[in-house]
Automatic annotation (TrEMBL):
One of its GO terms (biological process) is isopentenyl diphosphate biosynthetic process, methylerythritol 4-phosphate pathway involved in terpenoid biosynthetic process. Pfam families: DXP_redisom_C, DXP_reductoisom, DXPR_C. Pathway: Isoprenoid biosynthesis; isopentenyl diphosphate biosynthesis via DXP pathway; isopentenyl diphosphate from 1-deoxy-D-xylulose 5-phosphate: step 1/6. This is 1-deoxy-D-xylulose 5-phosphate reductoisomerase. Mn(2+) binds at D151, E153, E227. GO terms for molecular function: 1-deoxy-D-xylulose-5-phosphate reductoisomerase activity; isomerase activity; manganese ion binding; NADPH binding. It comes from Methylovulum psychrotolerans. It catalyses: 2-C-methyl-D-erythritol 4-phosphate + NADP(+) = 1-deoxy-D-xylulose 5-phosphate + NADPH + H(+). Belongs to the DXR family. Its cofactor is Co(2+); Mg(2+); Mn(2+). Residues 4-133 form the 1-deoxy-D-xylulose 5-phosphate reductoisomerase N-terminal domain.
Length: 394
């Protein structure tokens, strides 16, 4: 049996991972579960899966959670608190695989700790790779860790790559990657109506069940911009070799175009248990719990090029990766601040891109060759984004 640590157990990826793991109790044992504030769900997960460790990042909530655990039938679970505890459980000797599913910059350090400890890293946190770039990939190589992408698109690409492919390798057999996107809920909304869309409308994704932040990123297509940057790193390709294709049915999860003209596509229902099960079972396969794809029910598949006027965040992502250095980190941090402000009703939907663009304009490109530089750029970008927010015309 393999031991697994789930970073972000109460989020949608964490919940789906536990669903898949529960279907194969003879293969995986849950060693650690972590959550930020959702201690009620974390407690239920502890009762069902009985991990050795539970981490509550929010230190204001940990004492009540600890007492609840002590009074339960799983009183032997060790309860830890704080962000450093995430790195601790991701590096435990009993852990073989780490599901890195903490959204945003908060997932960087524990994901990096798992890589440095030589674990099999199931990477669902795209921001960690966007922020740290080569630093993360170098840590994977140096420690002999295995990196398996969980995002449905990157997992699809990984499945379509040549036999025995390892993340970070460059394959001369591959000409380009076709990275698919649903287009989100506003793909056909008249442009003049976009300033007035609400957070509730933005998080109502037509195909996928995701958290609020990722759903807004999908609506702006920043999610696809971050995935494009991630794909450059995971598959060692140039931005010009990553073509984004809007595919509203979300049946083809991405494609790989080979030099001989062959295009391989991975297909399936929009269910995150499919890429999760692929990574957990690799190089074998097992049941994910997802419904089989009914190609006749799908009926048709459409494809279109993205419009940068409708999706300016996508343009900003390409600008960031071309600039290099700290700019992807700045892009990501400013986006997190802007999205949270939108969700709180402080800014309009179309202001998200404005906050990011003006924040990026405040920085000069410099190399991001140490973790300290990356973390400093992240913090400075958040300060800059908050300053832009305070000066934004409402």
């Amino acid at each position: 049996m393999k031991g697994i640590c789930i970073l972000g157990a109460t989020g949608s990826i964490g919940v789906s991972t536990l669903d898949v793991v529960a279907r194969h109790p003879h293969l995986y044992r849950v060693v650690a579960l972590t959550a930020n504030t959702n201690t009620d769900l974390l407690f239920s997960q502890c009762l069902e899966h009985h991990p050795d460790y539970a981490v509550v990042v929010d230190e204001k909530r940990v004492q009540a959670f600890r007492e609840k655990i002590k009074a339960s039938i799983v009183s032997d679970i060790k309860v830890l608190s704080g962000a450093k505890a995430l790195e601790q459980v991701a590096s435990l000797p009993a852990v073989d695989s780490v599901m890195a599913a903490i959204v945003g910059a908060a997932g960087l350090l524990p994901s990096l700790a798992a890589a440095k400890a030589g674990k099999t890293v199931l990477l669902a946190n795209k921001e960690a790779l966007v922020m740290s770039g080569d630093i993360f990939m170098q840590a994977v190589t140096a420690a002999g860790a295995q990196l398996l992408p969980i995002d449905s698109e990157h997992n699809a690409i990984f499945q379509c790559m040549p036999a025995a492919y390892q993340a970070g390798q460059h394959s001369p057999l591959v000409r380009r990657i076709l990275l698919t996107a649903s287009g989100g809920p506003f793909r056909q909304t008249p442009l003049e109506q976009l300033p007035d869309v609400t957070p509730a409308q933005a998080v109502a994704h037509p195909n996928w069940d995701m958290g609020k932040k990722i759903s807004v990123d999908s609506a702006t297509m920043m999610n696809k911009g971050l995935e494009m940057i991630e794909a450059c790193l995971l598959f060692n390709m140039q931005p010009e070799q990553i073509q984004i294709v809007i595919h509203p049915q979300s049946v083809i999860h991405s494609m790989v175009d080979y030099v001989d003209g062959t295009v391989l596509a991975q297909m399936g229902n929009p269910d995150m248990r499919i890429p999760i099960a692929h990574a957990l079972a690799a190089p074998e396969r097992f049941d994910s719990g997802a419904e089989p794809l009914d190609i006749f029910k799908v009926g048709r598949m459409d494809f279109e090029a993205p419009d940068f006027q409708r999706f300016p965040c996508l343009r900003l992502a390409y600008e960031a990766i071309h600039a290099g250095g700290i700019m992807p980190t700045v892009l990501n941090a400013a986006n997190e601040i802007a999205v949270e402000a939108f969700l709180q009703g402080q800014i309009r939907f179309t202001d998200i891109a404005k906050v990011i663009e003006r924040s990026m304009a405040a920085f000069t490109v410099r190399p991001a060759d140490t973790l300290e530089i990356v973390l400093d750029a992240d913090q400075q970008a958040r300060v800059a984004a908050n300053q832009v927010l305070s000066q934004l015309d409402r």
